[in-house]
Structure formats: C-alpha cells, structure tokens
Amino acid sequence: MYPFFRLFKDMWKARSAAPMGLFDTHISHHMCMPWDLDMWNELNNGRTLTLYDLGRIPMGQRMGLMEALKRERWGLTVAGSVVRYRRRVRGLDRIEVQSRVIGWDRRFVYIEQSMWKTNGDCSSQIVLRTAITDANGIVTVDRLAKALGVDMSEAPELPAWVSKWIEAEDLRPWPPHREV
Q1: Distance between CA 11 and CA 97 in Å, rounded?
Q2: CA nearest to 76, candidates 96, 99, 102, 58
Q3: Name one Pfam family in it (predicted).
Q4: For residue 122, what are the contacts with CB-CB under 8 A and spacing of at least 6?
C-alpha cells in the first residue's frame, strides 16, 4: 500500500517550510520501516522509488507546483527514470533524501534525487524525466513556467551523462518487443 500517512506528514512539514526556488535542494528525512523491507531485510527497490516520491512531492509543494496543478487541473507523471543503487539500507536505518531540479527541455523537467545514510554514504541516486499533463497530453514547459510565475526560458545545460541517457531513451524502441 502506498504510504499516504507518511506523504501527508511530509506535505504538512513542507507547507510550513520556506518556499523554494527552482534550483534549490529540498532535504527530507525518512526511516526504513519494516514494511519497506524485502526478504533480505533491506529496503526494497520498489519502495526506494516510493521514498523518492516522499522527497519529490513535498519539493513540488514548496516550489508552488502543487497549487498550480490544482488551479490548472493538471497531473504530474514520471515519464522515465534511471536509478543507481550502491549501498544497502537496512530496517530502521535513517536516511536523508536530497531532491533538486537539474534542468528541462520543451516537454520534460529533469529531477535528480539521492538517498544518504547517516554515515555519509550515498545509498542510491535517481534521475527522473517528469511531465505535467492535462486532458490533451503533456503540458509544455513554457505553460508550466507561466503557471508557476517563473522564468524557464533558458534551460541550464544538463550534465553530459544525463544528456546521454536522454539520447539512449530516444533510441529505445516503443512499444517494446512482444512475443505473440
């Protein structure tokens, strides 16, 4: 089950936190609960993505995104992601999630998140290709910028490895091969 109570708690904290700028880093703290574990007593890879949600959605709250989504009747979706796992997170470990926007193109906003253990080790990192949607499909970034009241006319240069990932995604066939 999705951790709605944890999300509500984090959204409540985000409401009382200072507003964020587009390139600020949102920091959130979490604990790996027993229901987040796999059979090896470590954070399940699917639940890792959910904990990243718990960092990313409150970041959007602090940036004014959630208000704009509600006002415009837009949705928010993940259109792609790439994750690197490096250190185990065990049951009851405390973790810090750092979330930040790293850039955008005409249709997508790219977000980088990392998960840090209390000993300073980075457990995992994810880059997400996110999109705002309406009844007609993807909302362009210029419309998003207008709704947020921010200048997004100049996209920052993405790190080379992120650009290469985007290129690789563009080469990937869709729909994928299917045995009939």
Answers
A1: 15
A2: 58
A3: 4HBT_2
A4: 86, 87, 114, 115, 116
Q: What is the DSSP string of 65-77?
A: HHHHHHHHT-EEE
For residue 176, tell me if it sits in a domain.
no
Contact 164, 110 (CB under 8 A): no
What is the rounded distance in angstroms from the CA atom of residue 139 to the CA atom of residue 117?
Answer: 36
Encode pLDDT of 133-164 as tens digits. Answer: 999 999 999 999 999 999 999 999 999 999 99
| pLDDT of 180 strictly over 90 | no
Q: Is residue 65 part of a domain?
A: yes
For 60, the 3-state DSSP assignment is helix
Closest to 150 (Cα-Cα) out of 31, 65, 26 = 65
- Predicted confidence at residue 1, as pLDDT, reads 81
Average pLDDT, the chain: 96
Structural domain range at position 80: 4-170
- Rounded Cα gap, residues 139 and 150, in angstroms: 16
CATH number of 61's domain = 3.10.129.10
pLDDT tens digits for 73-118? Answer: 999 999 999 999 999 999 999 999 999 999 999 999 999 999 999 9
SS3 (DSSP) at 157: coil
Structure-block tokens of residue 72:
């415009």
